[in-house]
Write a structure and sequence with these properties.
This protein is mostly helical. The protein has 13 helices and no strands.
Length: 259
């Protein structure tokens, strides 16, 4: 049975990749947008309140984590469009694993996310950022970043099915912005008001960004709070909790569609 699930999921992944080939502009925009943010904050707006040393060394790990929160609306819109066009009903009538539709969609999203990380790392290297950790640390950082994306992706898929319509998804995806910017991607929590800094340190994106900085050999800027000192633990725990909550919710809601 598991082999059928994998085969069906790969078939649905190829469907998404074929869609990318027909809509290359959408893929390019998704890759370019985080690069624009990186260059804007690095050169135009500036920032780095409370940061010691080169700001780019602090900024890029934060942007890598923040990038994992961007682009979710594309997958969410695709899910709702399939629902409203009756595509999902046709898939459900076929002899295929019911979970393959969502799993295939998530596989395709993860491939684009991995590509986005490569682009961001390349741009960071071009503007002077260097990875000071070992190769194993780099693989660990990439794994944590993709784990964060995987968790946020399933939260997005579930919310997309709850919304049900593409126009409602645009309202839901606005929630990504406060979650993303209320993090330590651009500035240290200790440079913020006490209550805000405490909230920022518990943000899943902050935990991943802090851990990536540690793995990259960036000087420690932790405030001494429990969340800051155990960022590596939270960088694993937060995504696992999100997946444990939203994956079964998404699968359960998908199975109830049309009943």
């Amino acid at each position: 049975m598991s082999s059928y699930v994998l085969t069906d999921s790969w078939t649905m992944t190829r469907r998404e990749l074929a869609y990318w080939a027909r809509q290359p502009v959408q893929v390019v925009v998704g890759l370019v947008f985080p690069v624009m943010l990186l260059l804007m904050f690095g050169y135009l707006i500036g920032g780095g309140r409370g940061v010691e040393g080169a700001y780019v060394d602090f900024l890029i790990p934060g942007m890598l984590a923040l990038t994992m929160a961007f682009g979710l609306e594309a997958t969410m819109l695709a899910v709702t469009q399939d629902l409203n066009k009756g595509v999902i009903d046709r898939f459900r009538s076929m002899p295929m694993a019911s979970s393959a539709v969502l799993v295939g969609r998530s596989f395709a999203d993860m491939l684009q996310s991995a590509l986005g990380l490569l682009v961001m790392i390349g741009v960071g290297h071009a503007i002077g950022w260097r990875w000071n950790g070992g190769f194993g640390a780099l693989l660990g950082a990439v794994g944590l970043l993709l784990l964060l994306r995987f968790a946020m992706l399933w939260a997005g898929i579930h919310l997309a099915m709850v919304a049900g319509k593409p126009e409602l998804v645009q309202a839901v995806q606005i929630l990504v912005w406060p979650v993303g910017f209320l993090s330590n991607a651009f500035a240290t929590p200790e440079s913020m008001p006490g209550w805000l800094g405490a909230a920022v340190e518990w943000n899943p994106i902050s935990a991943t960004a802090t851990t990536v900085r540690d793995l990259a050999g960036i000087p420690d800027v932790a405030t001494g709070s429990w969340a800051a000192e155990h960022a590596d633990l939270l960088a694993v725990a937060w995504p696992l909790v999100l997946v444990a909550v939203f994956f079964p919710l998404a699968v359960s809601r998908f199975r109830r569609l049309g009943r």
